[in-house]
């Protein structure tokens, strides 16, 4: 079991204590302000009451805000404590999902049923009112025949006949037409039935009008007949000044139901809520004076209170009680059946909750064991459901983590060894240039991996000759670094033995061919500079041609074609000899420079490189090196390097010795300022 470092507990916040102190301070300010105002300022009639009142008001706001905040924090803390465990959350979820729809559906059914009862009550009111109009029409017809006052009429019933003086009180429109409806007159609603009686030809028609005010007597008769309780109020668009009561505004009209009933409406509404249907009706009234032309200006608002039993009696007659009892029995049976099914569902949900909670608890124990660093803990649950699969996945995960930790430790060891190997490789590269008069040197080595495959070296053969080598082993990583180190050791030995170019390349080819089973190859360029004779002897094995930079001329490649080392068991090389002049510079590159690609995959290319070398006016090695690297970096942008990048540059100025004595005279400068240490980046 691997030890796990425990994370330090975060410091506890003291914000709650500070807010509680502020809350206590606010309470103290309120109490102090009230005491000072009541017992000091008012008795002594001192100024400052407004300031203390404003301060107390601000303190009250602060106390209220902090109290609400504390209540919210307490509720959140309580909910977290109550429902921290998964089982409790599942229970609450199942309860809400299982029970809440019943309540919502019951509310929906009750609302729909209540609305249906309200519509039925509204229809009953309209029917009763229409029946009253029909009775008035019959009475008017009977009056036209007999002239007798109808029996059973209310005391307030008004009868108008154009054959006597009462007809003069009728408006013109009512005299000239037959009408049956509701009329507004002087703030009161009336039921009006007008009937015209035809006479002999040429004589004016006789008009008889019965008008019955909707007063308390009519309402009482209506309630005795229908069993419904109604309250009426007339409203219009111009008069909307009422005293107190329930105010109704609709369609630009205003109604105050509880104006002068001394609280009767409030008492009726409270006693009827939940036991009776409370509904409303709004009917447009015809103006008594203007007639139908002013219809819609006045409205009668009627509040209806109708018992449910009365509603059933109205529509179903005497058999309503039996019908309602049968309906209630069926509803009770259905409710009991649904409760049985619901109890079975609750039992099934409880079993699910128990199984889920048990599995979660076992998984929680496993995670805590892993947190302690115990990767040997196994939950060992059967994969009977998704949680079982999760538990098995947890067991496989702990096994993988344990194996991964072993692999990580091994990889760390290997990475440490690779870093040591990379450090050794960097140390194998020369740290300074050739120690010859008039020779300046600069180089840059940038591997793409920890260990690169590029190689360069500088050799001081004798007092007048120096040699440089640059190569590139195919591939990346540790194997290429080993091949590079092996080739460096072999070249160093062969150069010290004085091997000439052909023998040197043949022996290196044999070494690379025999030492790499995967048939890796290596490109190599080897150049000997004879400073006394002023010559360059260049031998190449598949490497990029070096560029000779000479004043007044375009860059020229020293082309010596040949296969790389290790491709075949034997190799045939060629050596090119070029004269060396004062001011010449030689530029060596690896293929990682010319093959560097931008974001679109376009390589840097030889044309770009040669144009850059042509434009260079400063031929110092460090300047040329920096310009090449900057150009490649601009070309690649954010794209990482795909291959190792190596640049090596030599420049020859005043290299011919005045006397063939020592390579470095007492008055000569051994190394010019361009000589730099190797730059190696990873």
Give an overview in words.
- This protein is α+β, with helices and mostly antiparallel strands and 682 residues long.
- It has three domains: 18-82; 130-320, no CATH class; 429-680, Phosphatase 2c, domain 1 (4-Layer Sandwich), CATH 3.60.40.10.
- It has helices at 15-44, 49-82, 86-146, 172-175, 216-226, 264-272, 308-316, 320-371, 386-428, 478-497, 501-515, 591-594, 606-615, 621-636, and strands spanning 158-161, 179-185, 188-197, 206-213, 229-236, 247-250, 253-256, 276-287, 298-307, 439-446, 454-460, 465-473, 522-530, 535-541, 547-549, 556-557, 575-579, 585-589, 645-652, 679-680.
- Strands 1-4-3-2-8-9-5 form a seven-stranded mixed β-sheet, with helices on both faces. It has a six-stranded mixed β-sheet with strand order 16-15-18-19-10-20. Strands 11-12-13-14-17 form a five-stranded antiparallel β-sheet, with helices on one face.
- Helix 8 (320-371) packs parallel to helix 9.
- Residues 238-246, 250-255 and 658-682 have low confidence and may be disordered.
CA distance, first residue to last residue = 36 Å
Kindly report the oligomeric state of this protein.
single chain
Broad CATH class of the largest domain: Alpha Beta
> Might you state the CATH topology name of the largest domain?
Phosphatase 2c, domain 1
How much helicity do the residues have?
40-55%
Mean pLDDT: 80
Secondary structure: number of strands: 20
């Amino acid at each position: 079991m691997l030890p796990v470092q425990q994370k330090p507990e975060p410091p506890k916040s003291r914000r709650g204590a500070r807010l509680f102190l502020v809350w206590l301070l606010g309470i103290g300010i309120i109490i102090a302000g009230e005491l000072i105002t009541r017992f000091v300022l008012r008795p002594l009639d001192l100024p400052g009451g407004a300031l203390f009142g404003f301060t107390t008001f601000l303190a009250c706001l602060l106390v209220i805000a902090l109290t609400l905040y504390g209540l919210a924090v307490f509720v959140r803390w309580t909910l977290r404590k109550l429902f921290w465990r998964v089982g409790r959350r599942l229970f609450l979820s199942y309860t809400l999902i299982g029970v809440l729809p019943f309540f919502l559906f019951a509310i929906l059914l009750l609302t729909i049923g209540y609305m249906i009862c309200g519509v039925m009550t509204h229809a009953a009111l309209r029917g009763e009112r229409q029946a009253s109009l029909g009775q008035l029409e019959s009475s008017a017809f009977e009056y036209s025949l007999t002239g007798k006052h109808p029996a059973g009429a209310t005391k307030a019933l008004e009868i108008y006949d154009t054959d006597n003086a009462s007809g003069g009180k009728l408006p013109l429109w009512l005299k000239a037409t037959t009408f049956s409806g509701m009329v507004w007159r002087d703030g009161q609603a009336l039921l009006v039935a007008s009937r015209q009686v035809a006479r002999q030809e040429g004589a004016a028609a006789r008009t008889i009008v019965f008008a019955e005010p909707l007063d308390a007597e009519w309402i009482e008769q209506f309630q005795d007949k229908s069993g419904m309780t109604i309250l009426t109020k007339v409203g219009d668009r111009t008069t909307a000044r009422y005293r107190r009561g329930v105010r109704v505004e609709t369609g630009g009209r205003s109604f105050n139901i509880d104006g002068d009933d001394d609280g009767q409406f409030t008492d009726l509404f409270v006693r009827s809520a939940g036991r009776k249907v409370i509904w409303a009706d709004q009917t447009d009234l015809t103006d008594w004076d203007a007639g139908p032309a002013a219809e819609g200006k006045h409205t009668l608002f009627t509040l209806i209170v109708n018992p449910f039993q009365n509603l059933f009696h109205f529509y179903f007659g005497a058999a309503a009680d039996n019908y309602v009892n049968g309906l209630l029995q069926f509803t009770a049976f259905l409710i009991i059946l649904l409760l049985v099914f619901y109890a079975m569902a609750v039992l099934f949900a409880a079993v699910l909750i128990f199984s889920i909670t048990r599995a979660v608890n076992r998984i929680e124990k496993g995670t805590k064991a892993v947190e302690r660093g115990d990767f040997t803990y196994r939950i060992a649950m059967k994969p009977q459901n998704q949680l079982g699969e999760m538990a098995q996945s947890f067991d496989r995960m702990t096994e993988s983590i344990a194996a991964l930790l072993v692999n990580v430790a091994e990889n760390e060891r290997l990475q440490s060894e690779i870093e040591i190997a990379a450090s050794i490789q960097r140390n194998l590269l020369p740290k300074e240039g050739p120690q010859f008069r008039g020779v300046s040197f600069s180089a840059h080595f940038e591997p793409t991996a920890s260990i690169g495959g590029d190689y360069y070296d500088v050799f001081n053969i004798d007092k007048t000759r120096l040699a440089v080598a640059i190569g590139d082993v195919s591939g990346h990583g540790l194997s290429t670094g080993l091949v590079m180190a092996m080739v460096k050791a072999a070249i160093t030995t062969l150069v010290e033995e004085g091997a000439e170019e052909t023998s040197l390349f043949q022996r290196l080819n044999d070494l690379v061919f025999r030492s790499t089973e995967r048939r890796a190859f290596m490109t190599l360029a080897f150049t000997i500079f004879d400073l006394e004779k002023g010559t360059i002897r260049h031998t190449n094995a598949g490497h990029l041609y070096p560029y000779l930079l000479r004043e007044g001329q375009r860059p020229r490649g020293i082309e010596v074609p040949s296969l790389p080392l290790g491709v075949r068991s034997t190799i045939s090389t060629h050596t090119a000899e070029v004269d060396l002049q004062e001011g010449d510079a030689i530029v060596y590159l690896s293929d990682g420079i010319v093959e560097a690609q931008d974001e679109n995959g376009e390589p840097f290319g030889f044309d770009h490189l040669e144009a850059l070398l042509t434009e260079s006016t400063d031929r110092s090695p460090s300047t040329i090196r920096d310009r090449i690297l900057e150009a490649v970096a601009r070309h690649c942008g954010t794209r990482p390097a795909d291959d190792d990048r190596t640049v090596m540059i030599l420049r020859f100025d005043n290299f011919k010795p005045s006397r063939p004595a020592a390579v470095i005279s007492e008055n000569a400068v051994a190394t010019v300022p361009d000589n730099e240490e190797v730059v190696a980046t990873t």
